Amino acid sequence: MSDSLTLKPIGFIRTGKRVKFQARHQPVDGEEECNVLELLPGANYEQALQDLAGFDRVWLLWWFHRNETWRPQVLPPRGPARRRGVFATRSPHRPNPLGMTPVRLLGVEGRALYLGACDLVDGTPVFDVKPYVPAYDAFPEARAGWIAEADAWADEPPKYAVAFSALAEEQAAWLRTEQGVEFTPRLVELLSRDPVTAPHTAHPQTPVGRF
Ligand SMILES: C[S@@+](CC[C@H](N)C(=O)[O-])C[C@H]1O[C@@H](n2cnc3c(N)ncnc32)[C@H](O)[C@@H]1O
């Protein structure tokens, strides 16, 4: 068998999130969002979508197409600043940058899927759609390793008030009006919990980065 396999996207998602920073780390339920995955024409995907509308959620399997490298160890964005093995994380910096996200299915029309909150940037290639089946896919009692610890940290009330200097306000307004990018809410969310710069240089031979 060949040591490489070829996958072809079935479509590209439209989320309106132009930069990675705008996309959530994991989709948050209840957030008002409507994203559209229009499957490519000419492949009978209309038929392949038959019977999907009866599911509340679907799994999207996709490619972190904006990443070109991977790292064996990464610094997760939440919790204490500690490097973790990439296979123990949901980091985008993986040897095969495959993403998987369970999203709410709002509707199906022709080749288009209307989807709720998700963590994909605009234009992300999607390889597959599968129904989310609670009886097979949900194990709420399963141990969540270091992530349970990090989630407890993130659930604590924010520790810091975040104020913007006049220059930062001006720059955020420029990004908003000229580039259509809204950074402020995510910045406040992150800085109010942990304003300390990530120690990227802790081990120069093994680059790490917050993902
Ligand atoms: C932490 S990953 C988690 C992904 C997913 N739930 C999983 O486990 O596969 C989500 C982040 O990936 C980044 N991202 C989203 N789409 C991307 C893309 N097409 N290429 C590279 N990075 C992307 C965004 O910064 C987003 O916050």
Q: Mind telling me the C-alpha Rg?
A: 19 Å
**Can you count the beta strands?**
8
The CATH architecture of the largest domain: Beta Barrel
In which order are the strands of the major sheet placed? 1-2-7-6-3-8
Helical residue percent band: 10-25%
Distance from N terminus to C terminus (CA atoms, Å) equals: 33 Å
Helix/strand/pairing category: alpha+beta
CATH topology of the largest domain: Elongation Factor Tu (Ef-tu), domain 3
Strand content: 15-25%
CATH class division of the largest domain: Mainly Beta
What does this structure look like?
With 211 residues, the protein is an alpha+beta fold. The protein has two domains: 11-145, Elongation Factor Tu (Ef-tu), domain 3 (Beta Barrel); 157-205, no CATH class. 19% of the residues lie in helices and 20% in strands. The chain contains five helices and eight strands, in the order ββαββββββαααα. It has helices spanning 45-48, 134-137, 145-155, 166-179, 184-191; strands at residues 11-14, 35-39, 57-63, 73-74, 84-85, 98-109, 112-115, 125-131. A six-stranded antiparallel barrel has the order 1-2-7-6-3-8. Strands 4-5 form a two-stranded antiparallel sheet. β6 (98-109) and β7 form a beta hairpin. The two termini are 33 Å apart. Residues 200-209 have low confidence and may be disordered. Bound molecules: S-adenosylmethionine.
